[in-house]
Design brief:
This protein has 445 residues and is an alpha/beta fold. The protein is built from 15 helices and 16 strands.
Length: 445
C-alpha cells in the first residue's frame, strides 16, 4: 500500500511560523483569562456517544466522528445487525458538553461559581473551507453556578480584554447580542406555536447567508403560513433599522451605519411586541425583565471597556442548549463570526437532574490565526532571532567558542539557530527570514 504524504481531508499540518504565532496567542489567552479568575481544565477528546447525541448540538450532531466498539463487542453488534449498537463513543464536536460532564462528576470539589478555561481540539465531519477544518482548536471560558448577569458581563469583559491585548482591535471587532427568550417571544408574536420554535430557529440561523427571501422560501417549504413568516420578517426589519446590523435581503447580514444605539433597538422591540403598559400580562413583564437584563449587560460592559455591542434580534446560534443571552464576535476581516457563546442553564441538569446556571464563550482561534497569518503577524517583544552559520570543516576549538557565544545570547533570552553553512547561502537565509530570523552571522574556517 502506497503511503500518502498529505494530511487527511479537513485536517492540516502546522508549519513552524504558524506554530510560533499559535503558541504566543495561546500564552496570551491563558495569561488574560487567568487574570479574570478562570482556571484551566482538560477533558478527553473522546466522549460517550450518549452525551454527544443528546439533541443539544443541532446540526453538529450530524457531523460527529463516531468510534466503533472494539473486539468481541463489535463482532456481537454486527451479529445483532443493529447499526446503532456498533458505536459507543465519538470525537467531541465542542468543549461545552464535556465540560458539563466534568462539572457533574466533580462539582463537590470545585469552587462556586466555577470559572473554567478549556483549550483543546474538537472535531466535526464538516465540508472543509477557508477558516473551517474538521479538526480545530477551541478556546473556551465558562462560568458555572452564576445565575446573575455578572456571568455575561465578566465573560464579555474578559474576551474583549483578550482581543485587545492580542491586537485584534485593529480589525474593528464587535459583539452581536440577543436572547433566546426574545427570539421565542418574536416567534410567538408572529403567530408560530411554541413547538415550532426550534425548527424556525434553525432556518433563522441562516439569515446572514440567505437573507429574508431565503428564510421565507425555506419556511414556506417547511409548511408554515406565509402571513406568519411575513410578520416575523417585518418585525426583524423594523427593529434592525435602529441598530448597526442591517441584513441585506439578497446576501444576508452586513454591517451598516449605526442609526441608533442597541439599547434603543431593544426598547423599540419592547414597544412593538408588548404595547401599552395597561395591557401587560405576566409574559410581557418577563420579556421586559429580559430586555432590561440585556440593556444592563451592554451598559455595564461598554462603560468599563471600549467595545462595540450590537443588539441583533436575528442572532440564533446553532446549538440547541442555549437558554438565555447569546452573543457572537464579528470582525470586518472575516465574513462569519470569530467567536460566540451564551447561557445554557439546562444542560447540566441532564447529567445530575438539577438545573445549574451556566454560560460560556469560545473565540474562533483558527479563524483569528488565519487572519494573522494572511497579514504576516509579527509577535511583539524584544527577543532577537539570530542565525549562526558555520562553514564546513570548522575545527572543534573554534566550534566550541561559537557555541559558547550562542549560549551567552540564549541566556539573555534570545533565540539562536546554529547550523552548517549551506552551498546556497541566500536560499538558506531566505528560509530563516520566513520564520522570523533577522540577524545572520557567518563563521569561516
Amino acid at each position: 500500500m502506497q503511503m500518502i504524504k498529505t494530511p487527511v481531508n479537513g485536517m492540516k499540518d502546522i508549519e513552524p511560523r504558524e506554530m510560533e504565532i499559535r503558541q504566543f496567542i495561546l500564552s496570551k489567552i491563558r495569561e488574560v483569562y487567568s487574570r479574570f479568575g478562570f482556571t484551566e481544565i482538560e477533558t478527553p477528546n473522546i466522549e460517550h456517544i450518549e452525551n454527544l447525541l443528546s439533541d443539544q448540538g443541532w446540526d453538529n450532531e450530524k457531523l460527529i466522528f463516531k468510534i466503533l466498539k472494539r473486539g468481541d463487542k463489535l463482532e456481537k453488534a454486527f451479529e445483532l445487525g443493529d447499526m446503532n449498537e456498533i458505536v459507543d463513543s465519538g470525537l467531541r464536536y465542542d468543549l461545552t458538553v464535556p465540560l458539563c460532564r466534568f462539572y457533574s462528576n466533580n462539582k463537590d470539589k470545585l469552587t462556586m461559581p466555577f470559572k473554567a478555561m478549556q483549550i483543546g481540539n474538537v472535531y466535526r465531519a464538516d465540508r472543509p473551507q477557508k477558516g473551517r477544518f474538521r479538526q480545530f482548536c477551541q478556546c473556551d471560558i465558562d462560568i458555572l453556578g452564576e445565575a446573575t448577569n455578572l456571568g455575561e458581563i465578566e465573560t464579555l469583559l474578559a474576551t474583549s480584554t483578550l482581543l485587545k491585548e492580542i491586537g485584534f482591535d485593529k480589525y474593528n471587532f464587535s459583539f452581536d447580542i440577543n436572547d433566546r427568550r426574545i427570539l421565542r417571544a418574536m416567534n410567538n408574536y408572529a403567530g408560530f406555536n411554541d413547538e415550532d420554535f426550534e425548527d424556525v430557529c434553525i432556518t433563522l440561523d441562516k439569515l446572514d447567508k440567505v437573507g429574508y427571501d431565503g428564510v421565507k422560501k425555506e419556511l414556506l417549504e417547511k409548511g408554515y403560513a406565509e402571513d406568519k413568516i411575513d410578520k416575523l420578517n417585518l418585525l426583524f426589519k423594523d427593529i434592525l433599522k435602529n441598530n448597526s446590523i442591517v441584513p441585506n435581503n439578497n446576501v444576508g447580514a452586513n454591517v451598516g451605519t449605526s442609526i441608533a444605539s442597541p439599547i434603543d433597538a431593544i426598547r423599540d422591540l419592547q414597544n412593538k411586541i408588548i404595547g401599552k403598559e395597561e395591557n401587560f400580562n405576566d409574559l410581557d413583564k418577563e420579556l421586559i425583565d429580559i430586555c432590561n437584563n440585556l440593556i444592563d449587560i451592554i451598559d455595564t460592559v461598554t462603560k468599563n471597556i471600549d467595545v462595540k455591542i450590537n443588539f441583533n434580534p436575528t442572532l440564533v446560534r446553532g446549538m440547541g442548549y442555549y437558554t438565555g443571552p447569546i452573543f457572537e464576535i464579528k470582525s470586518e476581516k472575516f465574513s462569519g463570526s470569530v467567536g460566540g457563546g451564551g447561557r445554557y442553564d439546562k444542560m447540566i441538569g441532564k447529567f445530575i437532574g438539577t438545573d445549574t446556571p451556566a454560560l460560556g464563550i469560545s473565540i474562533g482561534f483558527e479563524r483569528i490565526i488565519g487572519i494573522y497569518i494572511d497579514d504576516d503577524y509579527k509577535i511583539p517583544g524584544n527577543i532577537k532571532k539570530i542565525a549562526y552559520l558555520i562553514e564546513k570543516g570548522m575545527n572543534s576549538d573554534k566550534k566550541s567558542d561559537i557555541i559558547k557565544t550562542a549560549l551567552e545570547e540564549r541566556n539573555k533570552g534570545n533565540i539562536v539557530y546554529i547550523a552548517e553553512l549551506a552551498k546556497n547561502k541566500k536560499f538558506q537565509c531566505e528560509k530563516l527570514e520566513a520564520i522570523g530570523y533577522t540577524e545572520f552571522k557567518t563563521f569561516n574556517v
